[in-house]
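Supplementary Note 3. Input sequence used for the single-chain structure prediction.
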Amino acid sequence: MSDTIKVLGLVGSFRRAGYNGMALRAAIELTPPGMLIESHDYRDIPFYYGDLEDESGIPAPVKALGEKIRAADALLIVTPEYNTSLPGLLKNALDWVSREPQGSFGAKPVAIMGASPGTYGTVRAQQHLRRGAAQRRRPDHAKTAGDDHQCGPALQRRRQAYRRSHQGAYRQAAHRAGGLDEAAQEVSEVFFV
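The predicted structure, written as C-alpha coordinates, is reproduced below.
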Protein backbone atom coordinates (compact mmCIF):
# COMPACT_ATOMS: atom_id res chain seq x y z
CA MET A 1 0.00 0.00 0.00
CA SER A 2 1.44 3.35 -1.07
CA ASP A 3 1.96 6.11 1.44
CA THR A 4 1.82 8.71 -1.37
CA ILE A 5 -1.15 11.07 -1.18
CA LYS A 6 -2.74 11.31 -4.62
CA VAL A 7 -4.47 14.61 -5.33
CA LEU A 8 -6.50 15.33 -8.45
CA GLY A 9 -6.18 18.97 -9.56
CA LEU A 10 -9.02 20.53 -11.53
CA VAL A 11 -8.72 24.03 -12.95
CA GLY A 12 -11.85 26.12 -13.50
CA SER A 13 -10.52 27.95 -16.56
CA PHE A 14 -8.40 26.58 -19.39
CA ARG A 15 -7.28 30.02 -20.55
CA ARG A 16 -3.68 29.69 -21.76
CA ALA A 17 -2.30 32.53 -19.64
CA GLY A 18 -4.90 32.27 -16.86
CA TYR A 19 -3.93 32.93 -13.25
CA ASN A 20 -5.62 29.76 -12.05
CA GLY A 21 -3.76 27.49 -14.45
CA MET A 22 -0.57 29.16 -13.18
CA ALA A 23 -1.64 28.55 -9.59
CA LEU A 24 -2.33 24.85 -10.27
CA ARG A 25 1.03 24.48 -12.00
CA ALA A 26 2.67 26.19 -8.99
CA ALA A 27 0.92 23.76 -6.63
CA ILE A 28 2.20 20.84 -8.70
CA GLU A 29 5.72 22.34 -8.68
CA LEU A 30 5.65 22.83 -4.90
CA THR A 31 4.18 19.45 -4.04
CA PRO A 32 6.07 18.06 -1.04
CA PRO A 33 7.59 14.58 -0.98
CA GLY A 34 4.93 11.94 -0.42
CA MET A 35 2.28 13.81 -2.39
CA LEU A 36 1.43 13.70 -6.08
CA ILE A 37 -0.86 16.25 -7.75
CA GLU A 38 -2.14 15.26 -11.19
CA SER A 39 -4.24 17.62 -13.30
CA HIS A 40 -7.04 16.45 -15.56
CA ASP A 41 -8.35 18.14 -18.72
CA TYR A 42 -12.12 17.74 -18.81
CA ARG A 43 -12.93 20.08 -21.71
CA ASP A 44 -14.39 17.21 -23.76
CA ILE A 45 -17.32 16.69 -21.37
CA PRO A 46 -20.57 17.62 -23.20
CA PHE A 47 -23.02 20.06 -21.69
CA TYR A 48 -25.36 18.31 -19.31
CA TYR A 49 -29.00 17.89 -20.12
CA GLY A 50 -31.30 15.11 -19.00
CA ASP A 51 -32.30 13.94 -22.49
CA LEU A 52 -28.68 13.17 -23.37
CA GLU A 53 -28.30 11.18 -20.18
CA ASP A 54 -31.58 9.32 -20.82
CA GLU A 55 -30.63 8.49 -24.41
CA SER A 56 -26.95 7.68 -24.04
CA GLY A 57 -26.19 7.25 -20.35
CA ILE A 58 -23.11 8.74 -18.75
CA PRO A 59 -20.64 9.88 -21.47
CA ALA A 60 -17.14 8.37 -21.53
CA PRO A 61 -15.36 11.65 -20.60
CA VAL A 62 -17.56 11.91 -17.49
CA LYS A 63 -16.77 8.31 -16.55
CA ALA A 64 -13.06 9.06 -17.00
CA LEU A 65 -13.27 12.08 -14.68
CA GLY A 66 -15.29 10.08 -12.15
CA GLU A 67 -12.66 7.33 -12.16
CA LYS A 68 -9.90 9.90 -11.61
CA ILE A 69 -11.82 11.42 -8.68
CA ARG A 70 -12.49 8.01 -7.11
CA ALA A 71 -8.81 7.04 -7.48
CA ALA A 72 -7.60 10.24 -5.78
CA ASP A 73 -7.20 10.68 -2.03
CA ALA A 74 -8.19 14.35 -2.27
CA LEU A 75 -9.17 17.05 -4.76
CA LEU A 76 -7.64 20.44 -5.42
CA ILE A 77 -9.96 22.75 -7.34
CA VAL A 78 -8.38 25.98 -8.60
CA THR A 79 -10.92 28.32 -10.11
CA PRO A 80 -11.64 31.90 -11.09
CA GLU A 81 -14.96 33.54 -10.41
CA TYR A 82 -17.30 34.22 -13.32
CA ASN A 83 -20.25 36.54 -12.61
CA THR A 84 -20.13 35.86 -8.86
CA SER A 85 -20.12 32.07 -9.30
CA LEU A 86 -18.31 29.15 -10.92
CA PRO A 87 -17.18 29.01 -14.53
CA GLY A 88 -19.73 27.06 -16.58
CA LEU A 89 -17.21 24.45 -17.73
CA LEU A 90 -16.33 23.47 -14.15
CA LYS A 91 -19.95 23.54 -12.97
CA ASN A 92 -20.97 21.37 -15.90
CA ALA A 93 -18.25 18.78 -15.17
CA LEU A 94 -19.23 18.62 -11.49
CA ASP A 95 -22.93 18.34 -12.38
CA TRP A 96 -22.23 15.43 -14.72
CA VAL A 97 -20.00 13.60 -12.23
CA SER A 98 -22.68 13.93 -9.55
CA ARG A 99 -25.00 11.90 -11.81
CA GLU A 100 -22.85 8.77 -11.65
CA PRO A 101 -24.64 6.08 -9.62
CA GLN A 102 -21.53 4.98 -7.69
CA GLY A 103 -20.70 8.55 -6.67
CA SER A 104 -17.26 10.07 -6.97
CA PHE A 105 -16.69 12.40 -4.07
CA GLY A 106 -17.47 10.26 -1.04
CA ALA A 107 -15.79 11.83 1.96
CA LYS A 108 -12.77 13.10 0.06
CA PRO A 109 -11.10 16.25 1.29
CA VAL A 110 -11.53 19.08 -1.21
CA ALA A 111 -9.10 22.00 -1.21
CA ILE A 112 -10.20 25.10 -3.09
CA MET A 113 -8.11 28.05 -4.16
CA GLY A 114 -8.38 30.74 -6.76
CA ALA A 115 -6.65 33.75 -8.23
CA SER A 116 -8.30 36.86 -9.60
CA PRO A 117 -7.51 40.53 -10.16
CA GLY A 118 -11.01 41.44 -8.97
CA THR A 119 -11.86 43.18 -5.72
CA TYR A 120 -13.44 40.10 -4.16
CA GLY A 121 -11.00 37.60 -5.61
CA THR A 122 -12.73 34.24 -5.90
CA VAL A 123 -14.55 34.22 -2.58
CA ARG A 124 -18.06 33.76 -4.05
CA ALA A 125 -17.00 30.99 -6.41
CA GLN A 126 -15.34 29.26 -3.46
CA GLN A 127 -18.55 29.57 -1.43
CA HIS A 128 -20.51 27.93 -4.24
CA LEU A 129 -17.95 25.13 -4.52
CA ARG A 130 -18.05 24.49 -0.78
CA ARG A 131 -21.84 24.17 -0.84
CA GLY A 132 -21.78 22.03 -3.97
CA ALA A 133 -19.05 19.71 -2.68
CA ALA A 134 -20.99 19.15 0.52
CA GLN A 135 -24.13 18.33 -1.50
CA ARG A 136 -22.24 15.91 -3.76
CA ARG A 137 -21.31 13.69 -0.84
CA ARG A 138 -23.07 10.38 -0.62
CA PRO A 139 -25.47 10.20 2.36
CA ASP A 140 -23.26 7.59 4.12
CA HIS A 141 -20.49 10.22 4.42
CA ALA A 142 -22.33 12.95 6.26
CA LYS A 143 -19.42 14.05 8.46
CA THR A 144 -16.92 16.54 7.15
CA ALA A 145 -13.78 15.18 5.57
CA GLY A 146 -11.73 17.52 7.73
CA ASP A 147 -12.41 15.24 10.69
CA ASP A 148 -9.31 13.13 11.25
CA HIS A 149 -11.28 9.90 11.31
CA GLN A 150 -12.58 10.64 7.80
CA CYS A 151 -9.11 11.03 6.28
CA GLY A 152 -6.78 8.21 5.31
CA PRO A 153 -3.74 7.63 7.53
CA ALA A 154 -1.30 9.07 5.01
CA LEU A 155 -3.37 12.22 4.72
CA GLN A 156 -3.75 12.51 8.49
CA ARG A 157 0.02 12.43 9.00
CA ARG A 158 0.86 14.85 6.23
CA ARG A 159 -1.96 17.38 6.37
CA GLN A 160 -0.48 19.28 9.30
CA ALA A 161 3.07 19.24 7.91
CA TYR A 162 1.88 20.33 4.48
CA ARG A 163 0.01 23.33 5.82
CA ARG A 164 2.99 24.43 7.89
CA SER A 165 5.55 24.00 5.12
CA HIS A 166 3.58 25.64 2.30
CA GLN A 167 2.05 28.67 3.93
CA GLY A 168 2.48 31.45 1.39
CA ALA A 169 4.36 29.23 -1.07
CA TYR A 170 1.61 29.30 -3.69
CA ARG A 171 1.73 33.08 -3.79
CA GLN A 172 5.52 33.09 -4.27
CA ALA A 173 5.48 30.43 -7.00
CA ALA A 174 2.63 32.04 -8.92
CA HIS A 175 4.48 35.36 -8.75
CA ARG A 176 7.65 33.73 -10.14
CA ALA A 177 5.73 31.78 -12.80
CA GLY A 178 3.60 34.55 -14.16
CA GLY A 179 4.79 37.86 -12.84
CA LEU A 180 1.56 38.46 -10.94
CA ASP A 181 1.62 41.45 -8.71
CA GLU A 182 0.43 40.88 -5.16
CA ALA A 183 -2.62 43.10 -5.52
CA ALA A 184 -3.88 41.03 -8.44
CA GLN A 185 -3.45 37.67 -6.77
CA GLU A 186 -5.65 36.04 -4.15
CA VAL A 187 -4.97 32.50 -3.06
CA SER A 188 -7.15 30.96 -0.40
CA GLU A 189 -6.05 28.84 2.52
CA VAL A 190 -6.48 25.13 1.97
CA PHE A 191 -9.53 23.86 3.79
CA PHE A 192 -11.57 20.71 3.83
CA VAL A 193 -15.30 20.77 3.11
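The two ends are 26 Å apart (CA to CA). The longest helix spans residues 123-135.
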